[in-house]
Amino acid sequence: MTPDHNGFDSATLWIVIAGMAVGSFALRFVFIGLVGDRPMPDWLLRHLRYTAVAILPALVTPLVVWPKATGGALDLPRLLAALVTVGVGTLTKNVLAAIFAGAATLYGLLYLL
Amino acid sequence: MAFSPASSYYWKGFRDGAPFILVAGPFGMLFGVLATEAGLNLTETMVMTATVFAGAAQLTALQLMQEHAPTIIVLASALAVNLRMAMYSASLTPFLGKAPLWQRAFAAYLTVDQSYACSIVRFETEPDLTVPQRMGYFMGSVTPVTTAWYAFTLVGALLGAQIPESWALDFALPIAFLAMATPMLRTSAHVVAATVSVVVALLAAGLPYNLGLMVAGLAGMITGARVELVLRKKGLWT
Protein backbone atom coordinates (compact mmCIF):
# COMPACT_ATOMS: atom_id res chain seq x y z
CA MET A 1 0.00 0.00 0.00
CA THR A 2 2.04 2.91 -1.23
CA PRO A 3 0.44 6.28 -0.60
CA ASP A 4 -0.42 7.73 -4.00
CA HIS A 5 -2.01 10.74 -2.36
CA ASN A 6 -0.55 13.16 0.22
CA GLY A 7 -0.05 10.62 2.99
CA PHE A 8 -2.87 8.16 2.23
CA ASP A 9 -3.69 5.60 -0.44
CA SER A 10 -6.67 5.15 -2.78
CA ALA A 11 -8.22 2.31 -0.82
CA THR A 12 -8.28 4.40 2.37
CA LEU A 13 -9.79 7.31 0.47
CA TRP A 14 -12.61 5.20 -0.98
CA ILE A 15 -13.38 3.68 2.41
CA VAL A 16 -13.59 7.19 3.86
CA ILE A 17 -15.79 8.41 0.99
CA ALA A 18 -18.16 5.44 1.29
CA GLY A 19 -18.32 5.68 5.08
CA MET A 20 -18.95 9.41 4.99
CA ALA A 21 -21.59 9.13 2.26
CA VAL A 22 -23.55 6.49 4.18
CA GLY A 23 -22.98 8.15 7.55
CA SER A 24 -23.89 11.66 6.41
CA PHE A 25 -27.11 10.44 4.81
CA ALA A 26 -27.97 8.42 7.91
CA LEU A 27 -27.51 11.50 10.14
CA ARG A 28 -29.78 13.54 7.89
CA PHE A 29 -32.37 10.78 7.44
CA VAL A 30 -32.60 9.54 11.02
CA PHE A 31 -35.17 12.03 12.24
CA ILE A 32 -37.04 13.20 9.17
CA GLY A 33 -37.16 9.71 7.66
CA LEU A 34 -37.38 7.34 10.59
CA VAL A 35 -38.83 9.36 13.45
CA GLY A 36 -41.45 11.04 11.26
CA ASP A 37 -43.64 13.23 13.43
CA ARG A 38 -42.99 11.65 16.82
CA PRO A 39 -41.37 13.86 19.51
CA MET A 40 -37.69 13.55 20.40
CA PRO A 41 -35.97 13.57 23.80
CA ASP A 42 -34.89 17.00 25.04
CA TRP A 43 -31.46 15.91 26.24
CA LEU A 44 -30.54 14.71 22.76
CA LEU A 45 -31.63 17.91 21.02
CA ARG A 46 -29.86 19.92 23.70
CA HIS A 47 -26.52 18.25 22.95
CA LEU A 48 -27.00 18.35 19.18
CA ARG A 49 -27.48 22.13 19.40
CA TYR A 50 -23.82 22.56 20.38
CA THR A 51 -22.11 20.16 17.98
CA ALA A 52 -21.08 22.72 15.37
CA VAL A 53 -19.75 25.30 17.84
CA ALA A 54 -17.85 22.58 19.70
CA ILE A 55 -16.35 20.57 16.83
CA LEU A 56 -15.33 23.34 14.41
CA PRO A 57 -13.22 25.32 16.95
CA ALA A 58 -11.68 22.08 18.22
CA LEU A 59 -10.57 21.23 14.70
CA VAL A 60 -9.25 24.70 13.91
CA THR A 61 -7.45 25.63 17.14
CA PRO A 62 -4.38 23.38 16.68
CA LEU A 63 -4.10 24.51 13.03
CA VAL A 64 -4.04 28.14 14.19
CA VAL A 65 -1.60 27.70 17.07
CA TRP A 66 0.72 25.19 15.40
CA PRO A 67 0.42 25.79 11.62
CA LYS A 68 2.00 23.11 9.47
CA ALA A 69 3.22 25.65 6.89
CA THR A 70 5.67 27.02 9.48
CA GLY A 71 6.66 23.60 10.81
CA GLY A 72 4.45 24.07 13.87
CA ALA A 73 5.87 27.41 15.00
CA LEU A 74 3.40 30.08 16.10
CA ASP A 75 2.96 32.43 13.16
CA LEU A 76 1.85 36.05 13.61
CA PRO A 77 0.02 36.50 10.26
CA ARG A 78 -1.95 33.27 10.73
CA LEU A 79 -2.75 33.95 14.39
CA LEU A 80 -3.94 37.49 13.68
CA ALA A 81 -5.90 36.37 10.61
CA ALA A 82 -7.76 33.87 12.80
CA LEU A 83 -8.48 36.50 15.47
CA VAL A 84 -9.70 39.01 12.88
CA THR A 85 -11.98 36.35 11.34
CA VAL A 86 -13.52 35.64 14.74
CA GLY A 87 -13.82 39.36 15.52
CA VAL A 88 -15.50 40.29 12.26
CA GLY A 89 -17.71 37.17 12.43
CA THR A 90 -18.86 38.18 15.91
CA LEU A 91 -19.53 41.79 14.96
CA THR A 92 -21.21 41.26 11.58
CA LYS A 93 -22.67 37.72 11.91
CA ASN A 94 -21.71 37.52 8.24
CA VAL A 95 -19.74 34.49 7.05
CA LEU A 96 -18.46 36.12 3.86
CA ALA A 97 -17.39 39.34 5.59
CA ALA A 98 -15.45 37.28 8.15
CA ILE A 99 -13.74 35.22 5.44
CA PHE A 100 -12.71 38.31 3.45
CA ALA A 101 -11.44 40.11 6.57
CA GLY A 102 -9.44 37.06 7.64
CA ALA A 103 -7.97 36.52 4.18
CA ALA A 104 -7.10 40.23 3.83
CA THR A 105 -5.31 40.15 7.19
CA LEU A 106 -3.40 37.00 6.26
CA TYR A 107 -2.27 38.28 2.86
CA GLY A 108 -1.54 41.78 4.17
CA LEU A 109 0.70 40.51 6.94
CA LEU A 110 2.37 37.81 4.84
CA TYR A 111 3.23 40.58 2.36
CA LEU A 112 4.46 43.07 5.01
CA LEU A 113 6.37 40.72 7.29
CA MET B 1 -53.87 29.49 0.37
CA ALA B 2 -54.62 25.84 -0.27
CA PHE B 3 -54.80 26.63 -4.00
CA SER B 4 -51.38 28.25 -4.09
CA PRO B 5 -49.39 25.58 -5.94
CA ALA B 6 -46.26 24.03 -4.46
CA SER B 7 -44.37 25.24 -7.52
CA SER B 8 -44.83 28.88 -6.54
CA TYR B 9 -43.25 28.01 -3.21
CA TYR B 10 -40.42 26.31 -5.05
CA TRP B 11 -39.59 29.65 -6.69
CA LYS B 12 -39.99 31.54 -3.42
CA GLY B 13 -37.45 29.18 -1.92
CA PHE B 14 -35.22 29.56 -4.96
CA ARG B 15 -35.15 33.34 -4.54
CA ASP B 16 -34.43 33.13 -0.80
CA GLY B 17 -31.70 30.54 -1.34
CA ALA B 18 -29.97 32.31 -4.23
CA PRO B 19 -27.72 34.62 -2.12
CA PHE B 20 -26.13 31.55 -0.54
CA ILE B 21 -24.42 30.91 -3.89
CA LEU B 22 -21.91 33.45 -2.59
CA VAL B 23 -21.07 31.08 0.28
CA ALA B 24 -21.41 27.70 -1.42
CA GLY B 25 -19.48 28.75 -4.54
CA PRO B 26 -16.19 29.79 -2.91
CA PHE B 27 -16.48 26.99 -0.36
CA GLY B 28 -16.97 24.39 -3.12
CA MET B 29 -14.03 25.85 -4.98
CA LEU B 30 -11.92 25.68 -1.83
CA PHE B 31 -12.77 22.00 -1.44
CA GLY B 32 -11.95 21.32 -5.11
CA VAL B 33 -8.58 23.04 -4.78
CA LEU B 34 -7.61 21.44 -1.46
CA ALA B 35 -8.76 17.99 -2.60
CA THR B 36 -6.58 18.26 -5.70
CA GLU B 37 -3.65 19.47 -3.58
CA ALA B 38 -4.17 16.43 -1.34
CA GLY B 39 -3.78 14.23 -4.42
CA LEU B 40 -7.39 13.36 -5.23
CA ASN B 41 -8.11 13.01 -8.93
CA LEU B 42 -11.15 14.57 -10.58
CA THR B 43 -13.34 11.46 -10.19
CA GLU B 44 -12.47 11.04 -6.51
CA THR B 45 -13.11 14.72 -5.79
CA MET B 46 -16.47 14.84 -7.57
CA VAL B 47 -17.74 11.51 -6.21
CA MET B 48 -16.88 12.65 -2.70
CA THR B 49 -18.55 16.02 -3.15
CA ALA B 50 -21.71 14.52 -4.68
CA THR B 51 -22.18 11.59 -2.29
CA VAL B 52 -21.13 13.20 0.99
CA PHE B 53 -22.49 16.66 0.12
CA ALA B 54 -21.15 18.35 3.27
CA GLY B 55 -18.22 20.70 2.75
CA ALA B 56 -17.04 21.07 6.34
CA ALA B 57 -16.98 17.29 6.87
CA GLN B 58 -15.20 16.74 3.56
CA LEU B 59 -12.48 19.26 4.47
CA THR B 60 -12.13 17.69 7.91
CA ALA B 61 -11.59 14.27 6.36
CA LEU B 62 -9.01 15.63 3.91
CA GLN B 63 -7.12 17.34 6.72
CA LEU B 64 -7.05 14.27 8.96
CA MET B 65 -6.09 11.84 6.17
CA GLN B 66 -3.10 14.03 5.41
CA GLU B 67 -2.17 13.91 9.10
CA HIS B 68 -2.13 10.09 8.82
CA ALA B 69 -5.02 9.69 11.26
CA PRO B 70 -6.47 6.15 11.38
CA THR B 71 -9.48 5.67 9.10
CA ILE B 72 -11.89 5.16 11.98
CA ILE B 73 -10.83 8.50 13.49
CA VAL B 74 -11.18 10.23 10.13
CA LEU B 75 -14.73 8.89 9.80
CA ALA B 76 -15.73 9.58 13.39
CA SER B 77 -14.41 13.15 13.25
CA ALA B 78 -15.95 13.95 9.87
CA LEU B 79 -19.31 12.58 10.97
CA ALA B 80 -19.03 14.50 14.24
CA VAL B 81 -18.73 17.67 12.16
CA ASN B 82 -21.94 16.52 10.44
CA LEU B 83 -23.86 15.86 13.65
CA ARG B 84 -25.48 19.25 13.23
CA MET B 85 -27.27 17.78 10.19
CA ALA B 86 -29.05 15.41 12.57
CA MET B 87 -30.14 18.46 14.52
CA TYR B 88 -31.46 20.09 11.34
CA SER B 89 -33.23 16.86 10.43
CA ALA B 90 -34.82 16.76 13.88
CA SER B 91 -35.87 20.39 13.67
CA LEU B 92 -37.45 20.00 10.19
CA THR B 93 -39.30 16.82 11.12
CA PRO B 94 -42.41 18.49 12.62
CA PHE B 95 -42.84 20.44 9.34
CA LEU B 96 -41.98 17.82 6.72
CA GLY B 97 -42.48 14.55 8.62
CA LYS B 98 -45.83 13.85 6.91
CA ALA B 99 -44.45 14.02 3.36
CA PRO B 100 -44.08 10.76 1.38
CA LEU B 101 -41.02 8.73 2.30
CA TRP B 102 -39.27 9.22 -1.06
CA GLN B 103 -39.60 12.99 -0.70
CA ARG B 104 -38.26 12.83 2.83
CA ALA B 105 -35.29 10.76 1.63
CA PHE B 106 -34.59 13.38 -1.02
CA ALA B 107 -34.94 16.19 1.52
CA ALA B 108 -32.57 14.35 3.86
CA TYR B 109 -29.85 14.27 1.21
CA LEU B 110 -30.38 17.99 0.58
CA THR B 111 -30.33 19.02 4.25
CA VAL B 112 -27.47 21.53 4.50
CA ASP B 113 -26.83 24.68 6.52
CA GLN B 114 -28.38 26.95 3.90
CA SER B 115 -31.56 25.00 3.09
CA TYR B 116 -32.19 24.51 6.79
CA ALA B 117 -31.62 28.16 7.66
CA CYS B 118 -33.97 29.41 4.90
CA SER B 119 -36.69 26.84 5.46
CA ILE B 120 -36.97 26.91 9.23
CA VAL B 121 -37.47 30.69 9.18
CA ARG B 122 -40.20 30.43 6.50
CA PHE B 123 -41.94 27.45 8.16
CA GLU B 124 -42.06 29.18 11.53
CA THR B 125 -43.31 32.50 10.16
CA GLU B 126 -45.95 30.86 7.93
CA PRO B 127 -47.37 28.04 10.06
CA ASP B 128 -50.36 27.51 7.72
CA LEU B 129 -48.33 26.19 4.80
CA THR B 130 -49.30 22.76 3.49
CA VAL B 131 -46.73 19.98 3.48
CA PRO B 132 -46.34 20.11 -0.36
CA GLN B 133 -45.81 23.88 -0.17
CA ARG B 134 -43.17 23.42 2.50
CA MET B 135 -41.44 20.69 0.52
CA GLY B 136 -41.54 22.90 -2.59
CA TYR B 137 -39.99 25.78 -0.67
CA PHE B 138 -37.30 23.55 0.82
CA MET B 139 -36.33 22.10 -2.58
CA GLY B 140 -36.29 25.58 -4.11
CA SER B 141 -34.06 26.99 -1.38
CA VAL B 142 -31.45 24.30 -1.90
CA THR B 143 -31.39 24.29 -5.72
CA PRO B 144 -29.06 27.30 -6.26
CA VAL B 145 -26.71 26.17 -3.50
CA THR B 146 -26.47 22.62 -4.82
CA THR B 147 -25.80 23.74 -8.38
CA ALA B 148 -23.12 26.19 -7.22
CA TRP B 149 -21.55 23.58 -4.95
CA TYR B 150 -21.11 20.99 -7.72
CA ALA B 151 -20.00 23.50 -10.35
CA PHE B 152 -17.46 25.32 -8.19
CA THR B 153 -16.01 22.13 -6.76
CA LEU B 154 -15.31 21.17 -10.37
CA VAL B 155 -13.74 24.57 -11.09
CA GLY B 156 -11.58 24.28 -7.98
CA ALA B 157 -10.49 20.76 -8.86
CA LEU B 158 -9.50 21.87 -12.36
CA LEU B 159 -7.59 24.90 -11.03
CA GLY B 160 -6.16 23.11 -8.01
CA ALA B 161 -2.72 22.10 -9.15
CA GLN B 162 -1.92 25.54 -10.57
CA ILE B 163 -2.27 27.48 -7.33
CA PRO B 164 1.14 28.55 -5.94
CA GLU B 165 2.21 28.00 -2.34
CA SER B 166 2.44 31.76 -1.72
CA TRP B 167 -1.37 31.84 -1.66
CA ALA B 168 -1.12 30.21 1.79
CA LEU B 169 -4.07 27.92 1.08
CA ASP B 170 -3.04 25.89 4.12
CA PHE B 171 -4.89 28.54 6.09
CA ALA B 172 -8.06 28.70 4.00
CA LEU B 173 -9.67 25.94 6.06
CA PRO B 174 -9.13 27.60 9.48
CA ILE B 175 -10.46 30.92 8.19
CA ALA B 176 -13.49 29.31 6.53
CA PHE B 177 -14.37 27.26 9.63
CA LEU B 178 -13.92 30.16 12.04
CA ALA B 179 -16.07 32.35 9.80
CA MET B 180 -18.78 29.66 9.77
CA ALA B 181 -18.67 28.94 13.50
CA THR B 182 -18.52 32.49 14.88
CA PRO B 183 -21.99 33.66 13.70
CA MET B 184 -23.39 30.46 15.30
CA LEU B 185 -22.42 31.77 18.76
CA ARG B 186 -25.93 33.05 19.42
CA THR B 187 -26.17 32.49 23.19
CA SER B 188 -23.77 32.47 26.13
CA ALA B 189 -24.13 28.66 26.18
CA HIS B 190 -22.74 28.55 22.62
CA VAL B 191 -19.87 30.86 23.58
CA VAL B 192 -18.94 28.77 26.63
CA ALA B 193 -19.17 25.56 24.56
CA ALA B 194 -16.80 26.96 21.94
CA THR B 195 -14.38 28.31 24.57
CA VAL B 196 -14.20 24.97 26.38
CA SER B 197 -13.66 23.21 23.07
CA VAL B 198 -10.74 25.53 22.20
CA VAL B 199 -9.07 25.08 25.60
CA VAL B 200 -9.51 21.29 25.62
CA ALA B 201 -8.29 21.08 22.01
CA LEU B 202 -5.04 22.77 23.10
CA LEU B 203 -4.64 20.63 26.23
CA ALA B 204 -5.49 17.37 24.43
CA ALA B 205 -3.46 18.07 21.29
CA GLY B 206 -0.88 15.47 22.33
CA LEU B 207 -3.36 12.59 22.38
CA PRO B 208 -2.70 9.86 19.80
CA TYR B 209 -4.89 9.21 16.72
CA ASN B 210 -6.13 12.83 16.65
CA LEU B 211 -8.39 11.90 19.56
CA GLY B 212 -7.95 15.44 20.87
CA LEU B 213 -10.59 16.59 18.38
CA MET B 214 -13.18 14.10 19.62
CA VAL B 215 -12.42 14.81 23.28
CA ALA B 216 -12.59 18.59 22.78
CA GLY B 217 -15.76 18.34 20.69
CA LEU B 218 -17.54 16.19 23.27
CA ALA B 219 -16.38 18.45 26.11
CA GLY B 220 -17.77 21.46 24.25
CA MET B 221 -21.13 19.78 23.53
CA ILE B 222 -21.63 18.60 27.11
CA THR B 223 -20.64 22.01 28.45
CA GLY B 224 -23.06 23.80 26.13
CA ALA B 225 -25.93 21.51 27.12
CA ARG B 226 -25.10 21.96 30.84
CA VAL B 227 -24.92 25.75 30.62
CA GLU B 228 -28.25 25.77 28.79
CA LEU B 229 -29.84 23.71 31.58
CA VAL B 230 -28.48 26.02 34.28
CA LEU B 231 -29.68 29.11 32.42
CA ARG B 232 -33.13 27.56 31.93
CA LYS B 233 -33.41 26.82 35.66
CA LYS B 234 -32.54 30.41 36.48
CA GLY B 235 -35.09 31.60 33.94
CA LEU B 236 -32.38 33.30 31.89
CA TRP B 237 -32.92 31.23 28.72
CA THR B 238 -34.76 33.00 25.92
Automatic annotation (TrEMBL), chain A:
<feature type="transmembrane region" description="Helical">
    <location>
        <begin position="12"/>
        <end position="36"/>
    </location>
</feature>
<feature type="transmembrane region" description="Helical">
    <location>
        <begin position="48"/>
        <end position="67"/>
    </location>
</feature>
<keyword id="KW-1133">Transmembrane helix</keyword>
<keyword id="KW-0812">Transmembrane</keyword>
<dbReference type="Pfam" id="PF05437">
    <property type="entry name" value="AzlD"/>
</dbReference>
<protein>
    <submittedName>
        <fullName>AzlD domain-containing protein</fullName>
    </submittedName>
</protein>
<feature type="transmembrane region" description="Helical">
    <location>
        <begin position="79"/>
        <end position="112"/>
    </location>
</feature>
<dbReference type="InterPro" id="IPR008407">
    <property type="entry name" value="Brnchd-chn_aa_trnsp_AzlD"/>
</dbReference>
<keyword id="KW-0472">Membrane</keyword>
Automatic annotation (TrEMBL), chain B:
<dbReference type="InterPro" id="IPR011606">
    <property type="entry name" value="Brnchd-chn_aa_trnsp_permease"/>
</dbReference>
<keyword id="KW-0472">Membrane</keyword>
<feature type="transmembrane region" description="Helical">
    <location>
        <begin position="20"/>
        <end position="40"/>
    </location>
</feature>
<dbReference type="Pfam" id="PF03591">
    <property type="entry name" value="AzlC"/>
</dbReference>
<feature type="transmembrane region" description="Helical">
    <location>
        <begin position="137"/>
        <end position="160"/>
    </location>
</feature>
<feature type="transmembrane region" description="Helical">
    <location>
        <begin position="191"/>
        <end position="224"/>
    </location>
</feature>
<keyword id="KW-1133">Transmembrane helix</keyword>
<keyword id="KW-1003">Cell membrane</keyword>
<dbReference type="GO" id="GO:1903785">
    <property type="term" value="P:L-valine transmembrane transport"/>
</dbReference>
<protein>
    <submittedName>
        <fullName>Branched-chain amino acid ABC transporter permease</fullName>
    </submittedName>
</protein>
<keyword id="KW-0812">Transmembrane</keyword>
<dbReference type="GO" id="GO:0005886">
    <property type="term" value="C:plasma membrane"/>
</dbReference>
<comment type="similarity">
    <text>Belongs to the AzlC family.</text>
</comment>
<keyword id="KW-0813">Transport</keyword>
